[in-house]
Amino acid sequence: MILPKTFAAKPPHPTAAIGIFGGTFDPVHFGHLRPALELLEQLPLTEIRFIPCRHPPHRQAPMASPGQRLAMLELAIAEEPRFTVDDRELARSGPSYMVDTLASLRAEQGNGPLCLILGTDAFRGLPQWHRWAELMELAHLLVMKRPGEPLPQEGELKHFLESRCIYDPAQLAQQPRGLIFPLEVTQLAISATRIRSLIGAGRSARYLLPDAVWDDIRKKRLYSAPLFMPEQ
Ligand SMILES: Nc1ncnc2c1ncn2[C@@H]1O[C@H](COP(=O)(O)OP(=O)(O)OP(=O)(O)O)[C@@H](O)[C@H]1O
Ligand SMILES: O=C(O)c1ccc[n+]([C@@H]2O[C@H](COP(=O)([O-])O)[C@@H](O)[C@H]2O)c1
User: In what residue span(s) does the Cytidyltransferase-like domain sit (predicted)?
Assistant: First the structure.
């Protein structure tokens, strides 16, 4: 017997979480992608959504345009079906505050678990974020160790971390928000700043990011002086 679609369709796993990976992604690189894949494999996540910010509230404007950064992200995730790109911040005017992004995701997801993914450098800057205390009312935090960027060793943020810290992945799926999971991921000392400066100096960024992204950068002459096309 063929069941009607409403019976046949499997509902999403009731205890699975969604990973939210915000960033400037100027450009996206393997330091984002490899740790994200490791989180998918180790944690009860159904997908990781990469959310490029339009107007970073905390740093200089990106060099590549929103459309160019979005295109690079789409090329970067094409081979991994559990990676998705969400352009909601690009469609919003004003500073791209994460609290607004998580509130809009929460409105869509109901009470399902959301996990905001951050490197240790971004985590240490958390008290400077807009309405930062509200973030924990909206999502869990997954804090990925980044080379040369230790977790806070003292002060308010250390206490904030210790009072919410968990090490059992199953707990992430058992409640919708409010926990912090620090994670060891493969340490890749890659940054978008370094990639931009290599390209600006006329050097190659190959093998620091996916080939498709590197080809796109060269094709559009991003991050370089107008005449730079060294690997034609
Ligand atoms: N190599 C890396 N390992 C772990 N986390 C990373 C790494 N690179 C970036 N991240 C994390 O990814 C998120 C988005 O980072 P972002 O897009 O700003 O990249 P970036 O390389 O830090 O860029 P930039 O050098 O321009 O500041 C942040 O939470 C950051 O901590
Ligand atoms: O909401 C804020 O005030 C805020 C302040 C600093 C950073 N963020 C977000 O943190 C994410 C990582 O930032 P970055 O600079 O490492 O790309 C990205 O999604 C930013 O929009 C958000």
Answer: 20-196
Q: Is residue 54 part of a domain?
A: yes
Amino acid at 138: L
Distance 119 CA to ligand 1 centre (A): 6
Instruction: Please check whether residue 90 is in contact with residue 66, taking contact to mean a CB–CB distance below 8 angstroms.
Output: yes
pLDDT at 227 over 60: no
Q: Tell me how many domains the chain contains.
A: 1
Is there a domain that residue 7 lies in? no
pTM: 0.92
Find the domain containing 77 and state its range: 17-189
The pLDDT tens digits for 33-68 are 999 999 999 999 999 999 999 999 989 999 999 999
**Cα gap 52→106, rounded to integer Å:** 18
Q: Tell me if 57 CB under 6 Å of ligand 2.
A: yes
Å from CA of 11 to ligand 1 middle: 34
List the CATH number of the domain containing 30: 3.40.50.620
**Does 72 sit in the ligand 1 pocket, CB within 6 Å?**
no
143 inside domain:
yes
- Average pLDDT score over the chain: 92
User: Does some domain include residue 216?
Assistant: no
Helix intervals (H) in the chain: 5-8, 30-42, 66-77, 98-109, 120-124, 155-162, 170-174, 192-200, 211-220
Ligand at shortest distance from the CA of 53: 2
pLDDT at position 16? 86
